[in-house]
Amino acid sequence: MTHERVIPAAAAPARDGLELSVTRLDGPVADRLLLGAGAGAVILALGPEVGKFIFIHGKLAIESAGGADGRAFVDEVARWLDLELAPASEGDAAESGAASAASTTWVRLGQGEDPFGVSWDSFKLFFSLGGRYAEVFLRLSGDGKRAQLIEKWSDYRETLVEILERLLAPAPPRKVQKRREAVQGPGGEMLFGVQGVFELAIPGGWLLTEQQGHWRLADPADERMIEFSCIRLPPLPPDAPDVAARLRSVIADSEYAASASPIATFERGGAAFAWSEHWFLSDDTNHPERARRPARGRWLLASNAWVQVLVTSCFWEEDFGVATAGWDSVVASLRLRGRAETPLTPDQQA
User: Fold this and answer.
1) From 38, 279, 281, 326, which residue has the greatest number of CB atoms within 10 Å?
2) Domain identity same for 208 and 95
3) Residues 86, 64, 56, 112: is their CA dihedral positive or negative?
4) Mean pLDDT score of the chain
5) Other CB atoms closer than 10 Å to residue 203's CB: what's the count?
6) Does residue 99 lie within any of the structural domains?
7) Quick check: 138 and 36 in contact, CB under 8 A?
8) Structural domain of residue 130, as residue ranges?
């Protein structure tokens, strides 16, 4: 019986990786790649094969694509790994000669497919500088249009960023640290969140309670309400419905579909948002003797590759100003965390 060898770096879901733009550059001997992430860009050169011990391997070179591109690239790698870089201390000096002192190599692992049939050519990159050492996977799509970094081991996170900071930034190296959680909302509000999943601000004076399967925010008079819930998403195929389509499905199943406004969308912090509102007449449960009166409701769906949050609200039309201020506070502060996963161990990614 034969078993097909699985290449973990190729088989990982696309959401696990840091997506990179890729352009192949002309070079006399090395396979040179211009890799972009956010505002950053680097040139990665996979030197000629120098030998084979189980896998083909060779020398690796990495340099900034120019100007501040290298440092911006390091910022993107740090953000992907849930890290951040603090400014260098006054008096810190640039570490000259880091590139010449570093040992950087590549190993070609082979080709494989991810869960949705995308073919990847996978490499393992090795970085060593002084007492620091790290490994990371690089994979290139079979059509040459995509590239991704894939994490090898969570213990390599800080050292990988430290090495790249020294190789790609000529200024004094910044200090790598865990990304700090915000302690206040944009208006100084108290924050609430689920670690590694999401966070949002509690509007001033509003009360938070946990209900079955969701959380509820209400003003002291219990006249205005915001509720929210979250789910962790499985890896989604490329043709999965986008956030607007998912919200459209929520609205279609609602009794208020007929009065729903057109869906508006925006993006922030690596997440996509879609929202709509609707109008209706409602009984006043706090004052059942009163006649039905105009009310308004809202839906908002926010999602990244890992997490989806649904936010709903309802309030009396006459309370539009106060209710909208509370809604805006929640929506403006809502942040979804990436990489909502258990840290990798060495045997999970070979």
Assistant:
1) 326
2) no
3) positive
4) 87
5) 25
6) yes
7) no
8) 8-179
Last residue of a domain, one of 142, 160, 179: 179
Q: Judge if pTM exceeds 0.70.
A: yes
For residues 106 and 95, the model is more confident at: 106
Give the span between the Cα atoms of 232 and 244, in whole angstroms. Answer: 18
Per-residue pLDDT averaged across 319-324, rounded?
92
User: Reading across the β-sheet that carries 214-218, which strands appear in turn?
Assistant: 207-211, 214-218, 225-232, 307-316, 293-303, 271-282, 264-268
Reading the block at residue 82, the tokens are: 């849930």
Burial class from Cβ neighbours inside 10 Å (0-12, 13-18, 19+) for residue 67 reads: exposed
Whether 29 and 161 map to the same domain: the answer is yes
Cα(320)–Cα(134) distance, integer angstroms: 54
Please say which residue of 147, 179, 211 terminates a domain: 179
Tokens of 154: 């969570």
Same domain? For 50 and 168 the reply is yes
> Are 123 and 104 spatial neighbours (Cβ–Cβ below 8 Å)?
no
